[in-house]
Amino acid sequence: MLLINPSIxxxxxxxxxxxxxxxxFPTGIGYLACYLRKYNAANITIFDxxxxxxxxxxxxxxxxxxxxxxxxxxxxxxxxxxxxxxLANKIKRIAPDTTIIVGGIHPTVMPEDCLLETCVDIxxxxxxxxxxxxxxxxxxxxxxxxxxxGISFIKDKKIIHNKPRKLIENLDTIPEFPYALFxxxxxxxxxxxxxxxxxxxxxxxIFCSQRAITGGKYRYFSTERSLKEIGLLVNKYNxxxxxxxxxxxxxxKKRLFDLADGIISCGYNQKAEFIADLRADxxxxxxxxxxxxxxxxxxxxxxxxxxxxxxxxxxxxxxxxQNNEAIILATRHGIKVSAVYMFGLxxxxxxxxxLTFKLSKKLPLDNVRFNIATPYPGxxxxxxxxxxxxxxxxDGWENFNVQYYLMGDIIPYYPKDTNKYLLxxxxxxxxxxxxxxxxxxxSLAKSTLSGGAVISIPKKLSFNDFIIILRLGAFLLKRFxxxxxKAKIEIVLxxx
Length: 496
Prior knowledge:
Layout (H helix, E strand, L loop, with lengths): L1 E4 L9 H4 L8 H14 L4 E4 L7 H9 L6 E5 L5 H14 L4 E5 L1 H5 L1 H5 L6 E3 L4 H12 L10 E5 L2 E4 L32 E2 L2 E2 L11 H4 L4 E2 L2 H14 L4 E4 L8 H13 L7 E5 L7 H9 L2 E9 L3 H6 L6 H13 L3 E8 L6 H13 L4 E6 L7 H8 L32 H16 L2 H9 L3 H4 L9 H33 L1
């Protein structure tokens, strides 16, 4: 079976900046592969387009090596669904008898969006491991799959949605992550040391699409299982940085303490440093001391905004004060903090954006990133934007990228009475003022995770790197002047 992780829509992302962006390690497709291998004895080939573009020649070669009946799975986010559909159409053209299955967050919440593409046979909704395993066995055996839970398909020209599949209760039933399938490209991944030790988050933030998969239920792997995978990354693959890429690592503190104790007892804290995605309200003095001892060197926090009013609007269930206190407490004890803020939230004023930026400058942040809030399908923000008739969707969802403001003017959503160009200007300016500064440049050069945990600048810049950076600087200057001009024009017209 062939599993594909498509690349991001090229129109949504700046090519120059892409040279230094972290490509998220494909944990989702990796878990599908290990489940299929264990329970179906399937021979799996993985193509991750973030590091290896799937050309037509490579696609032909891969398809020719799949035993019949041929099955291809494509995992799609909103940002990758256009490329996913392009690949699906190519596959059907090359090998029409192929059964094409798509899954991931976007197909889960927008199954019709995928099924209306004549190339797609089945959509898997929700967690895919068990569902895909059933489908694989039935299709390979020549049997009907119409009664499988958690899928959507077209039958007799009608779209059929079978009942949802229940979440996997015991995550340890999922086989260990198959790092071996990715090790040939180990040097191409900037985050090969990524690990997932839990799934889900119980908090109802209006901008989070992950709830479409997890339903807000929090589950975690056993400490023993997690330590075994950490040991594999540290000892076999010699990873010096281990990044826990989970929705919310701090939901169940005892679990986190046990994991930290295990890291210490195994001596992994002497061999690698660890990075955790945490909510501020889970960070306290006791936790910091424990994680510090386990060599956690950075926390990545979704701070979102500097406005207490907006924190309530987005249903964050924590406060700006909690964010500030957690950041100060962590940095005071030698743990770096990376924060992410969002502009363009519902009811937001320009004064609130200015407040957020001023706050970020005062806090002892190692790095920070400012995004424009994106109403991804499946989120409460998407429903709100649609209800307000303020949802703007370009072909292939190409504008559903947090950095699309660098590429185009049609952002997916902006609040009523907000000047669109001023919003783009403020977002661009906040990022430029952050990194065109002594602290910002120092962060880019020395930070564990630069640029708000998404940019990786090589320690040794090549001549080509200098050329790319100069071109990127020229592009950003040109974009800045254009947006400034448009913002002022809009303001003048509004006053007339």
